[in-house]
Write a structure and sequence with these properties.
Oligomer: single chain
CATH superfamily of the largest domain: Jelly Rolls
CATH topology of the largest domain: Jelly Rolls
Strand content: 25-35%
Number of helices: 7
Shape: globular
Number of strands: 17
Distance between the termini: 49 Å
C-alpha cells in the first residue's frame, strides 16, 4: 500500500473520530480497481475500496459497531456505498434506467450522443389476457418527428443472459465534404434540421423490446465527434413501466445488447435501409462466437 494513502486513511480516521469528516468520501478513481488492506487504529477501521464504476471509496467503519466479529473478520470487512451519483456520471459508467433518459427527451444534456433518441412507450396491461403496446406511427410520435420511417422491419430473440455486438453501420459522407464537417453540420450546427439526414443512404436503427430486460451500450465513433458513451436498461413489454422505451441509433454509433434477465429477450427493430451485408460492421464482438470444448475443437478442426 502506498505510504501516502496509508497516511491519508489514518488522517481521515482521526477526522471521523473528531466529527470533522463525513463517513464516506469518493475521490475520483485514477487507475484500475484495487483493494486496500484496512487500517485498524483501535477504534475505527479506515478502509479503501474501489467502488467499481463509481470510483475509489474510502469508508470509515466504527469498530464498536463490529466488535462482535473476530479481528480477522473485521480486517476483511467491506461496506457498500449506497449513494446515487448523477445521471451524467452513471450513463457512461455503471449505467442508468431507460426511463431516466426518456425523461430528458425534451432537453437533451451536453453528454448525450447526438442523433440518439430514447423515448417513452406506454404498455397497457390487459387483465387476464396480457398486454398491448404500440411501437411507432408514421404520422406522429418520435419517428415522425425526426422523419425516419423504416424501410425494413425484423424481429430477433436473444437467449437469456446472452449478448451481441458491438455492431456499427457506416455513415454516408457526401462527395467533397469531410466527415468532420458533415457531422458538425448535421448534429452540432443544425441538429433539428432532420431533412438534412441521409436516412435512405445509411442505416439507422429503431429498436423496441417486447420481452425480457435489455442492457444497451452505445459508443459514438463518428469522426470529429466527441466519443460519448451511454449505458442503460430497457424493460420489455412484459414488464410495463417507465423503462418501456424505444431507441433510435444513428449510423456510426456502435451498439451492443445484453439480455440480463432469466427470460429470453425479444426485440423488434426497423432500419432506415434494407439489409446490406457489407454495412454490418463489428467491433469487439467475440462474445457472439459459439464455444466448443478444447478437445472437441482439436478433434473437429483437425
Amino acid at each position: 500500500m502506498p505510504w501516502c494513502f496509508l497516511h491519508t486513511l489514518h488522517r481521515r480516521a482521526k477526522e471521523y473520530k473528531s466529527g470533522s469528516a463525513s463517513r464516506t468520501q469518493k475521490p475520483a478513481a485514477t487507475g484500475p480497481p484495487e483493494k486496500i488492506t484496512p487500517v485498524d487504529n483501535g477504534e475505527l477501521i479506515a478502509r479503501g475500496l474501489h467502488g467499481g464504476d463509481s470510483g475509489l471509496i474510502v469508508v470509515l467503519m466504527n469498530q464498536d459497531l463490529w466488535k462482535g466479529l473476530r479481528a480477522e473478520a473485521r480486517q476483511k470487512l467491506e461496506t457498500r456505498d449506497y449513494s446515487k451519483q448523477a445521471v451524467d456520471v452513471r450513463v457512461a459508467t455503471s449505467g442508468v434506467n431507460g426511463g431516466e433518459l426518456a425523461a430528458l427527451d425534451g432537453d437533451k444534456p451536453t453528454w448525450w450522443i447526438p442523433g440518439v433518441e430514447v423515448f417513452s412507450r406506454q404498455v397497457f396491461q390487459q387483465k387476464q389476457r396480457g398486454h398491448f403496446g404500440e411501437f411507432a406511427r408514421e404520422t406522429d410520435g418520435k419517428l415522425a418527428e425526426i422523419g425516419m420511417w423504416p424501410k425494413q422491419w425484423a424481429s430477433a430473440l436473444m437467449n437469456a443472459e446472452s449478448a451481441k455486438g458491438f455492431h456499427i453501420h457506416p455513415p454516408h459522407i457526401p462527395e467533397g465534404v469531410s466527415p468532420e464537417d458533415h457531422f458538425k453540420k448535421l448534429f452540432i450546427d443544425e441538429p433539428n434540421n432532420y431533412p438534412l439526414r441521409p436516412y435512405p443512404l445509411e442505416q439507422w436503427d429503431a429498436m423496441f423490446f417486447v420481452q425480457g430486460v435489455c442492457e444497451m451500450f452505445l459508443v459514438d465513433e463518428r469522426a470529429g465527434m466527441d466519443r460519448r458513451k451511454m449505458r442503460f436498461v430497457i424493460d420489455g413489454d412484459d414488464r410495463a413501466g417507465a423503462n418501456n422505451v424505444g431507441v433510435v441509433i444513428p449510423s456510426g454509433v456502435a451498439h451492443s445488447l445484453q439480455s440480463i434477465s432469466t427470460k429470453d429477450l425479444i426485440m423488434v427493430y426497423g432500419t432506415s435501409t434494407t439489409f446490406v451485408p457489407e454495412n454490418e460492421g463489428r467491433i469487439e464482438s467475440g462474445i457472439e462466437g459459439t464455444t466448443m470444448p478444447a478437445d472437441w475443437k482439436s478433434y473437429f478442426l483437425s
